[in-house]
Amino acid sequence: MINHKRSTQAISQANKERIIELRTAHPEMTLKTIGQQVSLTKERVRQVLTKAELPTLSTGRITTKAKPIQPCKQCGNIDKQFKGKHAVYCSTECKAIGIAQEWVQWRANHPDRWTTYQCTHCGTFKTIRTTLYKRQVKIYKNLFCSHTCSLSSQWDDKNSALSISRRVHIKLDRLDSTT
Q1: 89 CB contacts (<8 Å, ≥6 apart)?
Q2: Sequence ranges of the domains in the chain
Q3: How many other β-carbons are positioned within 10 Å of the β-carbon of residue 38?
Q4: SS3 of 73, please?
Q5: pLDDT, tens digit (0-9, with 9 covering 90-100), for 94-146
């Protein structure tokens, strides 16, 4: 068993020397390629190179070309620092405006996907997805712009169940207060 350990160490030392030799002779080789040459994993190759204080990144992957400066998608400013690697807007304000404009443009390009209807209670116009509109028309007799309008309409309607129950409670409250 001791002989096996010594032979493993000898092979390991030979692998280390071969890894260092490959890195110095071919700096464009990746860790994976070097690992395949010496039958080791790229992680083990990285560890050996780190211990030998050699670069772990191949020069083939490092680009010396400067990235072109992309202006902000909204304002066109190139002076501000972008927050992320793939950012296209220079600030949260530009992002909010840009997304809102993209949304308006998308809706203009897809008019068949949106339906505008008038609220039964207050008369304001609301735009919703056509699929949602069709579903609501099948289920409900009246369409409202908000939950508040829906409730207001039910409370104002003399024949609605909510209105009737409210009137019953008011009458019961008056009877209790007079007795």
Answers
A1: 72, 73, 74, 82, 95, 98
A2: 2-51, 111-178
A3: 18
A4: coil
A5: 889 999 998 888 878 887 888 889 998 888 999 888 888 999 889 888 889 88
